[in-house]
Amino acid sequence: MRVRIVVTALAFAGLAAAQSTRRQASLVVIGGTVITENARHDILSPGAIAISGTDIVDIDRPEVIAGRYRASETIDARDQIVLPGLINTHTHAPMVMYRGLADDLSLMKWLQEYIFPAEAKTVSPEMVRIGTRLAALEMIESGTTTYADMYYFEEEIARAERFITAFKGDSLIVPAVAPHAMYTNDEATLKAAAALARRHDVPLIIHLAETEDEVKTSREQHRTTPASYLESIGFWGPKTLAAHGVWVSDDEIQILKQRGVGVSHNPESNMKLASGTAPVTKYLAAGVALGLGTDGAASNNDLDMFEAMRQASFLAKHAMHDPTVVPAATALDLATIGGARALGMEKAIGSLEPGKRADLITVSMRAPRQTPLYDPISHIVYVTRGDDVRTTIVNGKVLMRNRQIRTLDRTAVIAAANQLAPRVRDAVKH
Question: Of the candidates 164, 291, 295, 288, which has an alpha carbon nearest to the alpha carbon of residue 236?
Answer without folding.
Answer: 288
